[in-house]
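User: Please predict the structure of the protein below. I'd like the answer in structure-token form so I can feed it into my own downstream comparison script.

Assistant: Understood. Taking the following sequence of 159 residues as input:
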Amino acid sequence: MLDETIPHATAPNAQQGPRSAWAALKRGLRGRCPACGEGRILRSYLTVNCSCSLCGEEFYHHRADDFPPYITIFVVGHILGALMFAVDDVWPDLPIAFHYVTWPLLCILLSLWLLPIFKGGLIAYQWALRMHGFETAHAAPAASECLDQPKAIPQQSAA
């Protein structure tokens, strides 16, 4: 039997207004805060900020996990597959060395460029749908919940 007194963790707060998924996704794909559109989601290449430096919206509870690499592989694979067929159709006599150099290099460059874009978009989309803790507005994180922030190292006493 389910306990009716425990609220669902993903139920949005009744006093919060709707969030535009499209606007949040556009901001996230640009690497910006989905709430204000000005702050940065990512602190470095793939490290997510604990919160927005301008509006204070928390990002520490995102669950991007492996989905951004899956999207990146899917998109890069389709782009490269189409390009390979097009190049082979237009220039069928290109030397094999061209293919050995071009396609792996293009694959690596596209993947490195698209991965942080897709990660920002996914986190912003989760924010817009109030998933994984984004349903609460500006709840202060516990020290152990913000895993991306450097932790203080306890000093050992010299005995």
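That's the full token string. The chain has a mean pLDDT of 81.
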